[in-house]
Design brief:
235 residues; alpha+beta; Arc Repressor Mutant, subunit A; 2 domains; 3-stranded antiparallel beta sheet; two-stranded antiparallel ribbon; 11 helices
Length: 235
Amino acid sequence: MSRDRDFTSVGRALAAPARSAILNLLMEGTSRPAGELAQGAGVSASTASDHLAVLVAAGLVTCDSRGRRRYYSLMGPQVATALEALGILAGPTPVSGYRKSRQTQLLAAARFCYDHLAGQLGTALADAWTHQGWLADSESLSLTAAGADGLRELGVDVDGAIDARRPTTRGCLDWTERRPHLAGSLGAAVGRRFLDAGWVVRHRTGRGLNVTESGHSLVREVWGIDLTEPAGPAR
C-alpha cells in the first residue's frame, strides 16, 4: 500500500464557503444543532443538511441524534489541529461591518481551538510558561516537574491530564499568531480551569472568548502578560 496520502476527499469537503463557515463554528469544540449551523453559515436548513452530510462523509464532523434534533461536532481534536494548521495557509474570510470586525478581533485575542486556549492568550501563556521553565521546549511544550507543581497550584487537573489516553502536551500551530499554543490533554485541562475560574467567558456568538477582569489581572500579575483585548464582563 502506498504511503502517499490522498488529500482530494478532504479538499472536496472543504471546497465550499458554507462548509468553511460551519467548520469555523465547530472549531471551539462545541456540539451545535443543524439549525444553528445553518444560520451561522447563512444558508437554508436543507442546504446546510447537504453540506453537513459531505463533512460527515469526509470524516471531519460527527452527528449525534438527540430526540428529534441532530447535533454536530468536529470528529476530534486531530481535526481541529489540522484545520488550525491549514489556517496558516488559508486567507481570511472577508470582513464587512462592525459586528464581523469585532468577532475577528475576539478570535485573534482569545478563542478555543477545540478544547484548548488559542489566539494571543494561548500563545502568550505558552511563551511565558516556556520562559518560566514550566514547559521544556518551545515546539513540543513538554511539561516539567516545576510546571506540574505550578499548574496544580493554579487549580489545573494535571494528574488527570497525565493519565489521559491522548498526549499530555503538544504544540499546536496558531493560525493567527503563527507560533504554537499548548494542546493535548493538559491544554484541555488548562482551558477548563480558565472557564471554571471565570478568567475567560465564552462570547455569546461565535468562537471568541472574552478575558475577564480577573483573567487579565491573573496573567498580568503572575506571568507579566499584557493582553491588548479589553476585559470582558467580570464574574
